[in-house]
# Entry
Amino acid sequence: MTEEMKNKTPSDRAKQILSAIIDNYIEEGIPIGSKKLSTYNRFNLSSATIRNVMSDLEDLGFIASPHTSAG
# Structure
């Protein structure tokens, strides 16, 4: 992580997605992918957009990808 990334905070959209990721993990006990998150009505975002936000959250250290094919 770069020094610039350490000083950044997630956007409101990223915070909402992070909250959904955490809620889902608590409920189901397994990682959630961008495709499933995109089906949630509260987001109205494509899975590609959610993947980009998840990538930002990973760069910031908030989440970690279990493996590269996790969608």
Residues 12-28 form the longest helix (17 residues). The mean pLDDT is 87. The chain has one domain: 3-59. The two ends are 23 Å apart (CA to CA).
